[in-house]
Design a protein that fits this description.
- The structure holds 2 protein chains of 2 kinds.
- Chain A is of the alpha+beta class.
- Helix content of chain A is 36%, strand content 23%.
- Chain A contains 5 helices and 6 strands; from the N terminus they run H-H-E-E-H-E-E-E-E-H-H.
- Chain A has a 6-stranded antiparallel beta sheet.
- The relative contact order of chain A is 0.14.
- In chain B, strand 2 and strand 3 form a beta hairpin.
- Chain B is elongated.
- Classes of the chains: A alpha+beta, B alpha+beta.
- Chains A and B meet through helix 1, helix 3, strand 3, strand 4 and strand 5 of A and helix 2, strand 3, helix 4 and helix 5 of B.
Chain lengths: 150, 241
């Protein structure tokens, strides 16, 4: 009888300890990126000014765009994601993470961490209409053509 | 009379609705083809998509040099670094059938040493099974849009440069909608459920075992009938010799 009581207390205790660990060990995607990647700059986030606004934080990753986006989303599952020819965009509750190609001449990738307004405005042509309202220009196929735009 | 007017309005709305084939709307397919065309300019790689389905006679097709609705057919000098096409099929089962909806994709490529694979798409969280879900159009657009990124990631061509939207081109009224739920819950819900189950398992285990090992209640002594003289067993005595 006593043995069963001890086992029951151990089970419930393990649950309580686990719950405490879950609550105390969780970090935001913003913190995780700051801990994992090299910070290369900060800039004013796009959009209106306001007391709640956060600056854009810019980081560098040694890995390519796909692998870096995967590493981030493996640790912090995004609520939504958008993949385009020019980068992978991950949407979180308060943040938008843009994993984009590095500046010309560099390798790896660049990570931009924005608040929701900053990320939406910055990536309007990529996420507009997917994650919010879009009243920009309607699409029409203009084609490319060899050498055009280079 | 009112019913006739309503039916007429409904018919008119149906006729006026833009023709849609497959998963993508005409506008979505146009935007997609244009973004591939822009990538083709940067990379000299031609891109296309060909997704068949069993719910509509018309497949989703398009390419960077033919536009929406036309498959990538002729390969010209603008494809000097190769060709990459997302191919696949979506099969919806009938509502009374036991089989489930299914979808599959593959990447056809030529002219490059290290072409992208379906595994690369999965690394980006893009799974063929999602083509049968509610966000089938978004999944298809993401898959096709990812091709130039994967081609660059594998070193076949330069990245398409990322350019942020100029502030002047973002209408002030446009904003993000549908705020996602808590990141903490999304990351940790499975652990929270497991811990709560453990916490609940303790008392349940205890009560269950207490019920099984309850000491048997002492039974009152059975009333015995008044004793009657019983015949005492007699042991046979060996005959005297």
């Amino acid at each position: 009888m006593k043995r069963h009581a001890i086992l029951a207390i151990l089970l419930a205790g393990a649950g309580v300890v686990g719950l405490i660990l879950v609550f105390t060990s969780h970090s935001s995607v913003r913190d995780e990126i700051a801990k994992t990647y090299r910070k290369v700059g900060t800039e004013k986030a796009p959009g209106k000014d306001g007391p709640q606004r956060k600056d854009t934080e810019i980081y560098a990753s040694r890995k390519g765009v796909t692998q870096t986006a995967r590493d981030i989303s493996d640790k912090h599952k995004p609520a939504d994601r958008r993949t385009t020819e020019a980068g992978a965009f991950l949407r979180y509750s308060d943040d938008i993470v843009s994993v984009v190609p590095p500046p010309q001449g560099s390798t790896g990738s660049r990570i931009l961490v924005d608040d929701e307004e900053g990320g939406y405005n910055r990536n309007y042509f990529f996420v507009g209409g997917f994650w919010g309202t879009y009243s920009g220009p309607a699409g029409s196929f203009r084609g490319g053509g060899p050498g055009a735009g280079k | 009379m009112i019913r006739c007017v309503l039916i007429a309005l409904l018919l008119a709305a149906c006729v006026a609705a833009p023709a849609q084939a497959g998963v993508l709307t005409v506008d979505d397919a146009t935007d997609l083809a244009q973004s591939l065309a822009d990538a083709q300019e940067e990379q000299d790689v031609c891109y296309g998509w060909e997704i068949t389905n069993n719910f509509d006679g018309t497949p989703d097709v398009g390419s960077s040099n033919t536009g929406p609705g036309v498959p990538l057919a002729e390969i010209d000098s603008s494809c000097s670094k190769g060709v990459v096409v997302l191919a696949g099929s979506i099969d919806y089962s009938c509502s009374s059938c036991e089989a489930e909806d299914s979808a599959s994709v593959s990447i056809r490529s030529s002219g490059m040493d290290n072409p992208p694979t379906v595994g690369d798409l999965e690394n980006l969280g893009l799974k063929a099974g999602d083509l049968t879900g509610d966000k089938d159009d978004t999944t298809l657009v993401n898959m096709v849009n990812a091709l130039p990124l994967l081609v660059a990631d594998r070193g076949n061509a330069p990245y398409v440069p990322y350019e942020q939207a100029p502030a002047a081109e973002v209408p002030p009224a446009d904003r993000a909608t549908g705020k996602p739920g808590s990141d903490f819950v999304r990351d940790s819900w499975i652990w929270m459920v497991l811990c709560v189950l453990l916490i609940a398992a303790g008392p349940i285990f205890y009560l269950h075992n207490r019920g099984q090992h309850k000491p048997a209640r002492a039974t009152p002594p059975r009333a015995t009938p008044p004793s009657t003289p019983a015949a005492t067993p007699t042991t046979p005595t060996p005959p005297a010799t």
